[in-house]
Amino acid sequence: KLVKNLHDEL
Amino acid sequence: NIFRISGDVAHLVSIIILIHSVETKKSAKGISLKTQLLYALVFITRYLSLLKLEFGSVYNTLMKLFFLGSTFYSIFIIKKYTREITQYVDDFKIGYLVAPCFVAALVFNYKFTVIEIAWSFSLWLEAVAILPQLFVLQSQGQGDLLTVHYIFALGLYRAFYIPNWVYRYFTEERLDIISVAAGVLQTLVYSDFFYVYYNKVFKNSLKLPA
Fold this sequence. Notes:
The complex is a heterodimer of chains A (10) and B (210). Chain A is mostly loops and 10 residues long. Helix content of chain A is 0%, strand content 0%. The mean pLDDT of chain B is 89. Chain B is built from eight helices and no strands.
């Protein structure tokens, strides 16, 4: 559940 | 959050130092073209989502365009003052960096899609992209102060992202294992440099008046 990509970062 | 902003500001500052340094000295001496080429590859692969025209936020989009543009510009001006480049060694075999990063991206990704693999690739490559620059610095013995500040600011950027990830884990329950692993690796790559930087800049500035 916690493994989510953070494509909103640079 | 504050860590994320600090990291982004450090990133901005680093590229401004680099371009300012090359422009004013009209020389790219001590700057690794290969590191800049790797960064261009990092930004191209990481910001592929720009092509999907999915703009998460104005801030992100502008920053992505800035990092892409400024990296290409830095390559352009380094090439412009390229005569000096032949005077020192920038012969790091970047294939040895790119290939393992590609393998890592194939192994560690959230979905087997072009965007996800490119994203993972960019994270791993960014972690090691500074190595040719550190290599040049070492072969020169004494690095130019601006170059050293540039590397420091660049290292600070990813280091700031680590508390940002801890913060986001607790506030948003979001955790990107690949980002964290690559980010920690990147900070470790820089750690030796941070130590040298600390000794050089902070200790020297304390005993300035002779």
